[in-house]
Design goal:
The structure holds two protein chains of two kinds. In chain A, the strands form two sheets. In chain A, strands 2, 4, 5, 9, 10 and 11 form a six-stranded mixed beta sheet that branches. Chain A is about 0% helix and about 55% strand. By secondary structure, chain A is mostly beta strands. Chain A has strands at about 5, 10-15, 20-25, 30-40, 45-50, 55-60, 60-65, 70-75, 85-95, 105, 110-115. Chain B is built from no helices and eleven strands. Classes of the chains: A mainly beta, B mainly beta. Chains A and B meet through β4, β5 and β9 of A and β5 and β10 of B.
Chain lengths: ~120, ~110
Amino acid sequence: KQEVTQIPAALSVPEGENLVLNCSFTDSAIYNLQWFRQDPGKGLTSLLLIQSSQREQTSGRLNASLDKSSGRSTLYIAASQPGDSATYLCAVRPYSGAGSYQLTFGKGTKLSVIP
Amino acid sequence: NAGVTQTPKFQVLKTGQSMTLQCAQDMNHNSMYWYRQDPGMGLRLIYYSASEGTTDKGEVPNGYNVSRLNKREFSLRLESAAPSQTSVYFCASSGDLYEQYFGPGTRLTVT
C-alpha cells in the first residue's frame, strides 16, 4: 500500500528565506505527483503537477522536483513571504490498476513565514 | 470561472438525519471525487466517478452514497448520519491530465 510522508510536520522561517519542503513515497509506480496548498478553513489549491516522466516543474517562485526511483519530491519556495504561510500537501496517483483514481496524500507541512 | 462549487458550506445534523451534499464543476472534467478530511487522518477518498455514468468506492465508502447526475454534478448522500461522519467534505474534479481541483468544502457536524 502506498504511503506518503512529509517531514517536517511544521516549519517556521523568517521572511525572505528560501526553503524546501519534502515528500517521500514508498511505491515508485506512480502516474503523477501533485503539490497543493491549503489555507485554514479553505479547500486545496493545486500548485504544481509533475508527471512521472518529468523531473521538475516551475511556477513563479515555486519549483517542484521528482526523483521517482528514490521515491522523493521536493517543493522549493524562493524568497518566502508571509502570504506563503499555509499547509502544503503532496499527493501521488498510482500508475494503473483498480485504484488508479485514488490519490494518496501526505499529512502536510504547516509553513509559517515570519515577517 | 467558478471551478468546483459545493453547497452547503456548513451543516449541523442530528444523529439519524439524512442530507445530500452538492458539487458542480464547470471545467468539463470527466472525473469527480468526494473526500473527507479529519485531523490526524488526512484526506481520504470516499467515492469517485471516473466518467459520467460510473461511480466507484474509495477508501472509506461506508455510510455514504453518491450520484453522478450529469457530467457537471456529483452529489454525496448521508442516509443516516452518525457522529463519526463529523468532518470536512471536499469535492474535486480532474480532466485528461488527472490534475485534481478542489472545491471550498462543507463543514459537517453530527450531534
